[in-house]
Amino acid sequence: MSVDTKRRSFLKASAGLVVAFHIPFGEALAQDAPAMPPEVNAWVVVKPDDTIVIRIARSEMGQGTLTGLAQLVAEELDADWSKVTTEYPTPGQNLARKRPWGSFGTGGSQGIRGSHDYVRKGGASARMLLVQAAADEWKVPAGECVAAKSVITHTPSGRKTSYGKVAMAAAKLTPPADIKLKDPKDWKLAGKRLARLDTVKKTTGAQIYGMDLTMPGMLNAAIKDCPVFGGKVKSFNAAAIDKRPGIRKVVQIGDSAVAVIADTWWRAKTALDALPIEWDLGPNAKLSNADVAATLKAGLTATDAVVGHEVGDARAAIGKAVRTVEAVYSYPHQNHATMETMNATVKWTPERCEVWTPTQNGEATLAAASEAAGLPQTQCEVYKMHLGGGFGRRGAVQDWVRQAVAIAKEMPGVPVKMIWSREEDMLHGRFHPTTQCKLTAGLDDKGEITGLHMRISGQSILASALPQMIKDGKDPFVFQGLNAAGPEASIGYTFPTLLVDHAMRNPPVPAGFWRGVNLNQNAVYLESFIDEIAHATKQDPLALRRKLMANHPKHLAVLNAVAERVGWSKKPPKGVFRGLAQTMGFGSYVAACAEVSVNKDGKLKIHRIVAATDPGHAVNPQQIEAQVEGSFVYGLSAALYGECTLKDGQMEQDNFSTYQVMKMDEMPKVETIIMPSGGFWGGVGEPTIAVAAPAVLNAIFAATGKRIRDLPLKNHSLKKA
Amino acid sequence: MTKLNVNGTIREFDAEDDTPLLWVLREQLGLTGTKYGCGIAACGACTVHIDGEPTRTCVRPVSSVTAKQKIVTIEGLSKNGDHPVQKAWAALDVPQCGFCQSGMIMAAAALLKQKARPSDADIDAAMTNICRCGTYNRIRAAIKVVSKGGDVKSAGLAIDHVGDKA
């Protein structure tokens, strides 16, 4: 049987699949758009030339999941890594085929930890099918054949064939029921410091992001939503701009936004800037940051709190304490500020709606598109574009997709690309929630902690983004890092009594999942306060932590690794001061030590960070290092500068001029220790962010004696009094 | 019709005089490697070279550039993506999401042309572009690799390149 004959028979069998996978403009897929490559299973396609296409359900937004997931599949597949490419299956295909790729959600550092088992099984199953196909052709038992680097060898006879030659036959076999995965100690591709698969295109300008998409006949749209939260459009005067060059249509979108559709985006944007719009500013027209802060402050002593973690009777223990230590902290609203602003290209007809967009959750995009288009999901499709940053902004809430579909409905049959200006992106974020926290510790006559009460007051992400997940008034995400146990962040200390409770106070500002989520502020609160207790009781901050962490060996191991590397037992260089922090979240254990100096003018310099991570299994250590370094940029940008403040019901920060972020000159050296202890799978994109701020805040206290309890740092003078 | 010299070719297009060069490159000339990040010259994602000078094009009116001036975008920095800066970037896996990297690479290439062995302070002063993923340390390392004639090992960052040319 010739290859061609096989090919034709495969084509016949899978014509529906081939049609469904024809993606007209999805560049991520177009790179591997041969006629009809045989699909060995949902995860693996092998072309006759031995090119292997691994399907990736999660979204690549810089975190390296594309490469890491491909490593896991290729490992079990015993693939020749130099022949591996990737493609995204579409959300519509996932729906039509009853979700063979599972979740498309790319958040919560879930890419690898949430799918390692089934993607590896996908690779292993494909390998078994390929080996079986070769064995069948040779009429030998499959057990006599071994696979390595995409080559199958019949050991007794020495005959060899390649995956590409048997893929057609393998695709027709029944998948094995019993799949055994490799012991990680035998990994050859997973666990290695492999180069990313998507780097080169990002150095030549060839990588196409959502914003870069072009299509024949495409129009462009700019949009302006009422800058005041809760406001609406009263009226607008389209006649003032519709004679400008290139303008096609000026339309109201929903009850709060106006869009201009034009031939180019620049013409649409400048026309929209010139459009007179009268807003009904609504109930929040006078709302200020001080109003929100007052509401949160009242929550610190309110009686309506929901308990998240309780050990014994902390209130009684604190009441009987010889001495108490108390402090109130706060954390502001922050914008994700992805480098690529929100955008989507949509083609809508009464029968079909297609969306091209950078999204962290293709399935959520499909659902949002379907709703906005007024069409069932089976008549919609989503093509995931490469993301210019995600950080949680492009996941659970698909507000921009709904807008883009509504705009495209005004132009049936014409693809329309909607791009948010940076100003629109800053004013209409899904902001990091704002909370305050009052911590009270009771101490006995020896200075030992007898009880700790953490009262959190403030915003719930779920109440804003996914209200259906709130049960009995409780948002469990609020307690990240403070839970009794579990991969979603357990506390690393044992206190004789403990009470962590939350008084939910939701300002009318949309909250979202912001890289690191609630672990960020909770680690600032707890890790700073532990440092406060250490100083109040004249204990070494490391020694106090070690005492409290005796029952938490994995938390303690990363902290010890950091202390050893930084040389905690020896004095730092003159003028340099150290601060520690540790936490656990997104399945991984992390710790950091910051070395800082503050000069006589109060200028802070962060010299060096030592950070340790135990993610259980480390799939690509060089990319984990990149994630850890990046976490310090994201976390320290937030600590140094990050805040969005309300004035007259709208955010005051509308671009990088007012929403400053860390740049190269402020970036410290980062030394990363990766210490996978095995037996579990943790994420690496987020947990380290949470230790960045408290490690630096504790070092600042060591340097200046100033305890910063309200972020960001830019609002404080570090000059010695 | 207006004319500009972009990547060694004279290109013609229609645009209002006050249109930023960025949007002419992206929308009229199809050169989307140069990115929009802020529109106020704060982030540097839109950096190209005009007669060798790194220029933030999101605030540069197209009418202020003449056809005699040579514009080089990321697409024209090298024929095969093999400019020393691009090679160092690939060797050290610098990009994460990559959206800021065209601007970073153009800024770095201009710096290294002006100063072959930049100090850390030179790098801090020239590289004021914003990266939100946090690639700053690898960018610094890659610039130093170029300044050492492409000696990737000098960066001390082990990355296994299997089957690619980086």
Overview of the structural elements:
- The complex is a heterodimer of chains A (721) and B (166).
- By secondary structure, chain A is α+β, with helices and mostly antiparallel strands.
- Chain A is built from 20 helices and 27 strands.
- Chain A has 3 domains: 190 residues, Aldehyde Oxidoreductase, domain 4 (2-Layer Sandwich); 151 residues, Aldehyde oxidase/xanthine dehydrogenase, molybdopterin binding domain (Aldehyde Oxidoreductase, domain 4, 2-Layer Sandwich), CATH 3.30.365.10; 331 residues, Aldehyde oxidase/xanthine dehydrogenase, molybdopterin binding domain (Aldehyde Oxidoreductase, domain 4).
- Chain B is elongated.
- With 166 residues, chain B is α+β, with helices and mostly antiparallel strands.
- Chain B has 5 helices and 5 strands, in the order E-E-H-E-E-E-H-H-H-H.
- Classes of the chains: A alpha+beta (721), B alpha+beta (166).
- The interface between A and B is large, with 70 and 67 residues.
TL;DR of this structure?
Chain A is α+β, with helices and mostly antiparallel strands and 721 residues long. Chain A has 20 helices and 27 strands.
Per DSSP, the total helix count of chain A is 20
Which fold name corresponds to the CATH topology of the largest domain in chain A? Aldehyde Oxidoreductase, domain 4
Proportion of residues in helical segments of chain B: 25-40%
Strand content of chain A: 15-25%
Q: Could you say which structural class the secondary elements and strand pairing of chain A correspond to?
A: alpha+beta
Number of domains of chain A: 3
CATH architecture of the largest domain in chain A, by name, is 2-Layer Sandwich
Regarding quaternary structure, what we see is: heterodimer
Cα radius of gyration of chain B in angstroms: 16 Å
Instruction: Give the CA-based shape of chain A.
Output: globular
Overall pLDDT score of chain B: 96
Largest beta sheet: strand ordering of chain B: 2-1-5-3-4
- The span between the termini of chain B is 41 Å
The assigned CATH architecture of the largest domain in chain B is Roll
- How would a textbook summarize the main sheet of chain B? 5 strands, mixed
Largest sheet descriptor of chain A? 7 strands, mixed
How much helicity do the residues of chain A have? 25-40%
- Provide a count of the helices of chain B: 5
Low-pLDDT regions of chain B: none
Largest interface, chains and sizes: A-B, 70 and 67 residues
Instruction: Tell me the total number of β-strands of chain B.
Output: 5
